[in-house]
Write a structure and sequence with these properties.
14 helices; globular; 12 strands; single chain; 13% strand; alpha/beta
């Protein structure tokens, strides 16, 4: 980026907002309905206070760990997000290269605007996120392609049988611009490019291709299809977490889809503790939705999570400066996590997981 580097993730967000058309910004930033769940995610995380330890002799902290049995530089993965070429011509390729440089997994969306083969060729750790499609043969072929080209996990998103009613996109009559499409589907997506007043073209396209009847039998079938680690993303109820583990999930992502699906869902961090308690260590549990910096990663680990997914901040970096912007975002998160761990008296993630937390009623944001 430029000589005047952003010093926090919020700085990157401000740069990003001026770098893309307003309708694209709304597509990235918007949530469903009145955006109540969207608005609750980050404040709910900020209400978690972490009680530091003192006199531990810690002057530097090791943020490294593992996710799904593979080493990571910090307990973070880049969340799956669609159509990243909306924000920069290099799209997912730029974000994947930055994730590789940061030593964290990149999760490639079914609705990626770059091909699986291109992204895995960057050499980083790639997990493939799967939406179950009406065309089951195409769904299974996506899994086979992900396996053939070196993806190291399959992430099934289970909270999006249909898209939530995203009013910003509806008001904008949002359509994908020419040259941006879900290239891994190898199928016509004209609906996503045709403007219709009062309608999101992306929602229309998704309604045409997603399997709205997604159920536990689909998860069981996916478990039979692949020997790769299986991650189930979009769980909030502990009963669903238990069922996922019993069906063969290796990890669960506690997520409300960044506030883009049910607009009455709880903040993900509120659901995190009960899910962790229910699974009792039988699988890894990651937190998604509302993570905006390294201190949020500290909070999640202290609450018992194995790690977090980072979503919108990566898109902000991509919009602001492509690969360099994403690299800066991930670097800022890493530096903030390292500093927060040191200030909390933690030499490593194991010590971080032993920290106590407390709830505070409100928290003013700065920066």
């Amino acid at each position: 980026m430029t000589a005047s580097q952003p010093v926090c993730v919020g700085d990157v967000r401000r740069l990003a907002e001026t770098a893309v058309p307003p309708e694209v910004w709304d597509f990235v930033e918007g949530g469903s309905g009145a955006e109540l769940t969207l608005a609750s995610n980050t404040p709910a995380l900020e209400s978690v206070a972490v009680v530091p330890r003192v006199l531990t002799g810690v002057s530097t902290s090791d943020t490294s760990g593992t996710l799904l049995g593979r080493p990571v530089a910090m307990p973070v993965a880049v969340a799956p997000m669609a159509y990243q070429r909306l924000l920069h011509p290099d799209g997912e390729l730029a974000a994947a290269r930055a994730a590789q440089d940061a030593g964290v997994p990149f999760i490639l969306s079914t609705l990626s605007s770059c091909r699986i083969e291109e992204v895995t060729a960057t050499g980083g750790t790639t997990w493939f996120q799967l939406y179950w499609l009406r065309d089951e043969e195409l769904t299974s072929e996506l899994v086979r392609r992900a396996e053939r080209h070196g993806c190291s996990a399959i992430v099934l998103t289970v909270d999006a049988p249909i898209l939530g009613h995203r009013l910003r996109d509806v008001r904008n009559g949002f359509t994908l611009p020419p040259g941006v499409r879900a290239v891994n589907l190898d199928a016509p997506d004209d609906e996503a490019h045709v403007p219709i007043s009062g309608t999101s073209a992306v929602a229309t396209h998704v309604a045409a291709i997603f399997c709205a009847e997604l159920s536990w039998r689909h998860l069981a079938r996916l478990r039979e299809w692949t020997t790769l680690p299986l991650v189930v993303k979009g769980i909030l109820d502990p009963r669903d977490a238990r069922h996922a583990v019993d069906t063969g999930a290796d990890a669960i992502v506690v997520s409300n889809h960044g506030g883009r699906q049910l607009d009455a869902a709880p903040p993900s961090v509120v659901a995190l503790g009960p899910v962790i308690e229910e699974v009792g260590g039988a699988c890894e549990v990651l937190l998604d939705s509302g993570v905006r910096g390294g201190t949020d990663v500290l909070r999640a680990i202290a609450l018992g999570a194995s790690g977090v997914l980072v979503g919108r901040p990566v898109l902000w970096g991509l919009a602001a400066a492509g690969e360099a912007g994403v690299r800066r975002v991930l670097s800022l998160i890493h530096a903030e996590l390292s500093e927060a761990m040191t200030l909390a008296g933690c030499a490593d993630l194991a010590a971080t997981g032993e920290l106590r937390t407390a709830e505070v009623r409100s928290c003013a944001r700065h920066g």
